[in-house]
């Protein structure tokens, strides 16, 4: 079984609140049923990954956080300037 020293899975990402804590955008579900989310409560760190990936998760965590930031900006009508 793969192991990791990174704290993973505390707020796992899932399609429904029955299976996890946040949706694919990192928005925290607000109940045990349905698809309602808490307004402006996002989780975008290693805790959303449900288990060890078998490799260092740094790039996966980074990619998920950047994707969630882009989706958040789009949802709120914000612009992210390129460096």
Overview of the molecule:
It is a single chain. With 83 residues, this protein is α+β, with helices and mostly antiparallel strands. Helix content is 23%, strand content 11%. The protein has one helix spanning 58-76, and strands at 27-29, 37-42. The chain has a two-stranded antiparallel sheet. A hairpin with a 7-residue loop joins strand 1 (27-29) and strand 2 (37-42). The model has no long low-confidence stretch (mean pLDDT 92).
Concise synopsis of the structure shown:
By secondary structure, this protein is of the alpha+beta class. The protein has one helix at residues 58-76; strands spanning 27-29, 37-42. Strands 1-2 form a two-stranded antiparallel ribbon.
Task: Write the topology of this structure.
Layout: E1 27-29, E2 37-42, H1 58-76
Antiparallel strand pairs: 1-2
**Count of helical stretches:** 1
* Helix content, binned percent: 10-25%
Oligomer: single chain
Number of strands: 2
Mean pLDDT comes to 92
Measured on Cα atoms, how large is the radius of gyration? 14 Å
- The global form is flat
Question: What is the straight-line distance between the termini?
Answer: 40 Å
List low-confidence stretches.
none
- Written as H for each helix and E for each strand, in order along the chain, the element string is EEH
| Proportion of residues in extended strands | 5-15%
Largest sheet, spatial ordering of strands: 1-2
Q: Based on helices, strands and strand pairing, what is the structural class?
A: alpha+beta
Major sheet description:
2 strands, antiparallel
């Amino acid at each position: 079984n793969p192991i990791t020293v990174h704290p993973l899975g505390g707020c796992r990402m899932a399609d429904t609140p029955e299976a996890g804590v946040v949706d694919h955008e990192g928005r925290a579900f607000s109940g045990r049923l349905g698809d309602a989310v808490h307004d402006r409560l996002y989780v975008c760190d290693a805790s959303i990954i449900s288990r060890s990936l078998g490799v260092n998760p740094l790039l996966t965590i980074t990619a998920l956080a950047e994707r969630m930031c882009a989706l958040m900006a789009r949802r709120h009508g914000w612009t992210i300037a390129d460096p």
